[in-house]
UniProtKB/TrEMBL annotation:
Hydrolase found in the keyword field: yes
EC number: 3.2.1.22
Residues bound to substrate: 198, 365-366, 442, 475-479, 525, 547
Keyword NADP attributed: no
Catalytic EC class: hydrolase
Organism: Candidatus Blautia merdavium
Family note: Belongs to the glycosyl hydrolase.
BP-aspect Gene Ontology terms: carbohydrate catabolic process
Full protein name: Alpha-galactosidase
């Protein structure tokens, strides 16, 4: 039984293959947290609540109710009644008072998992998962809150979200509505998160959790370059292969808060949800608010197991694209080749050389529309600039197709340039606060996608372009953060809804695009990787990882991204040297090997490559075809991190049946007087025999003693080793 409800003891146990999550009703009213961790067979675990220790529950010791609320482990803590740790829910009523107190009312268990209206969310059949709904009520507000828990037994994943309904007579305001909370005893936890900047996204950072609060957050209107909607609490001994990990990842692309707090009693509260900064939602009687989903993973086998759990879960239960299990066309994108300086002739020259080397799709990046020759105009004017693309889009696409290639196009639908026909026609379509100048960023404003007419107006223009030619792929970009938040169509007491309504508008537009063009391959992007998140993966099977295409910078970016997200989703390209972001010169081979751990493509002027480099492109294309099925579908193991050791980086992909594997090794810095390195492999079957670089090994030898990696002369050298089972 995936979900066991003991009505007498008022205990719910949620079991996955290897984990158990326990909930108990305390004092017949509060929804308390019992346990999350390794699988428990024994259902008799109510003692974990310490109900007999002071301060005892309010029914026994009413005079110390405040003290009880401030230490009891809660499933969904609230503001205003006495729990001074961070709350998950804060309600302001019509009179201005901020408090709520949810009491347990009942539960329901269903097979399968209901969708979340308007939001991306994981999905599963009746066989895959079960859902527990816990109903709670606040009598004063007439508020019903449903806590949703879906249990994916085989995947070892639990998802959480929350519905807030106004069943009262007065409207009230939701000032904070997080999606998940986990109260636990501290185990000297450390916080592990992903941090970065533009062109430096998702670098792993780990730090001790002291008393007080440590959080990762965004209130930029996107999941952001800087901090990521992921939080893991790990024990000090946790490595890739050992130790405990409690992880939360948010299936949402807008503002978020991910927080860990260590209390005076050495308990830890872990929270995730929409960031309360700038958020208020007015809930009229009869209305319901749906909070986005949080995915929970527990591992007692280190970070590597957590990673593979997320990868499988997202491949099996989040990404919907028909391309998920397909080899994606190897693309060449003209951005780093030409920036804005191109015309149809230049694109065809690139396409011609690319097609001769086996590249399968040309992607026309920014600069093909309106009068856009720089980044300072025309967003919103989604018609082809025929001065640049002479003869029009359809003619260009047909000529590219004659070369045997597909065609893809870049768009940035969420934006409007002050210098655009669209802005001159509809200045009110931009997000703005009356009386204030709109903050420009990259010389652009953001469209008010909380308004249906704006979503429809822009969508129709974009759809007309896609319909006008045989377009196989769309790169959906978003190049600035949200500021000066105001919508001319929302009343004053609803302006705090704009961030979330904006996200709902983005999701609506992407859903429509996929419904209207079911064969389209969609790649999301946000000034590089500012929206590489689980929300976006629901719409696109791949996301551009970073504007930094330098192979060495990419090691840390791809390591952090692949900590959670399947490598089949990471947009990764080979670009020219000196690299445009850091000026580094790396071997062409290394650039290819690093980009193989992703969707693979090129981002350079192929017409300018030397004959030697062109020959290498051919080899890389061959490797892609040889290995992509394995890389896309296999299990990912991190062997070493350059970030940690300062010298080398290494990872492996192992086929699910363990019959084949691919080892990647990058010698980032050469060392004088160095011997070869014995690199211990992972994921292979210890009992089987394997062949690697013409030598036979027993699996166990490769796991325990390792494979020999010679020290090479020179920095940035990469090595790819195929390991095959000997039948
Ligand atoms: C940011 C993207 O990450 C780049 O790849 C490129 O598409 C530019 N935007 C175009 O403006």
């Amino acid at each position: 039984m995936k979900i066991a409800a003991d009505e007498k003891k008022k205990v719910f146990l949620l079991h996955t293959k290897n984990t158990t999550y326990g909930i108990a009703i305390i004092d017949d009213r509060y929804v308390g947290h019992l346990y999350y961790g390794r699988y428990l067979e024994d259902a008799d675990i109510r003692y974990l609540l310490r109900e007999d220790e002071g301060p005892r529950t309010p029914s026994v010791n009413l005079r110390e109710k405040g003290a009880f609320l401030d230490c009891a482990p809660m499933e969904y803590p609230e503001t205003g009644m006495g729990d001074y740790r961070e709350s998950a829910l804060c309600i302001r009523d019509a009179r201005g008072f901020r408090a709520s107190e949810l009491f347990y009312e009942g539960y329901e268990i269903l097979n399968g998992k209901p969708g979340l209206e308007g939001l991306p969310a994981s999905w599963g059949s009746r066989e895959d998962c079960m859902t527990l709904k816990i109903f709670c009520r606040d009598e004063v507000l007439g508020m019903k809150v449903t806590l949703l828990y879906s249990v994916f037994e085989e995947s070892d994943v639990i998802t959480r979200s929350v519905l807030v309904e106004n069943q009262g007579k007065e409207p009230f305001y939701i000032e904070k509505v997080l999606s998940a909370c986990l109260d636990m005893d501290d185990r000297d936890f450390q916080v592990l998160g992903l941090f970065g900047s533009w062109a430096r996204e998702r670098h792993i950072q780990r730090m001790d959790l002291g008393y007080g609060r440590q959080n990762l957050a965004s209130f930029k209107g996107e999941s952001s370059h800087q901090e990521h909607p992921f939080l893991a609490l790990v024990t000090p001994e946790t490595t890739q292969d050992t130790g405990e990990v409690y992880a939360m990842n948010f299936v949402y692309s807008g503002n978020f808060l991910a927080q860990a707090e260590k209390s005076q009693f050495d308990s830890v509260r872990m929270l995730m949800g929409i960031h309360p900064e700038g958020f208020t939602w007015k809930l009229e009687p009869g209305a319901c608010f749906t909070a986005p989903e949080t995915v929970l993973v527990y591992s007692d086998q280190g970070l590597g197991h957590m990673t593979r759990t997320f990868h499988d879960f997202y491949r099996n239960h989040l990404i919907r694209s028909p391309y998920l299990h397909k080899k994606r066309p190897i693309l060449i994108n003209n951005w780093e080749a030409t920036y804005f300086d191109f015309d149809e002739k230049k694109l065809l020259e690139i396409a011609k050389d690319a097609s001769e080397l086996g590249i399968e799709m040309l992607v026309m990046d920014d600069g093909w529309f309106g009068k856009r020759n720089l980044d300072d105009s025309s967003l919103g004017d989604w018609y082809v600039n025929e001065e640049k693309i002479k003869g029009g889009l359809n003619a260009l696409v047909e000529n590219v197709k004659k070369l045997g290639m597909k065609f893809g196009i870049w768009i940035e639908p969420e934006m409007i340039s002050p210098d655009s026909e669209l802005y001159r026609q509809h200045p009110d379509w931009a997000i703005q606060i009356p009386g204030r100048s709109i903050t420009q960023s990259r010389a652009q404003y953001v469209l008010d996608l909380s308004r249906d007419e704006v979503v429809d107006g822009v969508y129709e223009k974009i759809a007309a372009v896609i319909r006008s030619a045989d377009i196989s792929y769309v790169k959906w970009d978003m190049n600035r953060q949200l500021t000066t938040m105001g919508s001319c169509c929302l009343p004053g007491d609803r302006q705090g809804e704009l961030y979330h309504r904006y996200m709902l508008g983005v999701y609506k537009m992407q859903e429509r695009l996929l419904a209207d063009f079911p064969d389209l391959l969609l790649e999301n992007c946000s000034g590089g990787g500012a929206r590489f998140d689980a929300g976006m993966l629901y719409y696109s099977p791949q996301i551009w990882c970073s504007d930094d295409t330098d192979a060495i910078e990419r090691l840390a970016i791809q390591e952090g991204t692949a900590l959670l997200y399947p490598v089949s989703a990471m947009g990764a390209h080979v670009s020219v040297c000196p690299n445009h972001s850091v000026g580094r010169v790396t071997p062409f081979e290394t650039r290819g090997d690093v980009a193989l751990l992703g969707t693979f493509g090129y981002e350079l002027d192929i017409t300018k490559l030397s004959p030697e480099e062109k020959a290498l492109v051919k080899e890389q294309v061959k490797k892609y075809h040889q290995y992509n099925d394995l890389i896309r579908e296999g299990d990912y193991y991190r062997l070493a991190s350059y970030r940690e050791n300062g010298y080398y980086d290494s990872w492996m992909i192992v086929e699910k049946d363990k019959s084949r594997a691919l080892l990647f090794y990058v010698q980032v810095r050469a060392r004088a007087n160095a011997k070869s390195r014995m690199l211990r492999l992972k994921g292979l079957d210890p009992q089987r025999r394997y062949l690697a670089e013409e030598k036979e090994y027993q699996g166990n030898t490769l796991l325990q003693a390792g494979i020999r990696i010679p020290a090479e002369m020179g920095d940035f050298r990469s090595r790819l080793v195929e390991i095959r089972e000997i039948p």
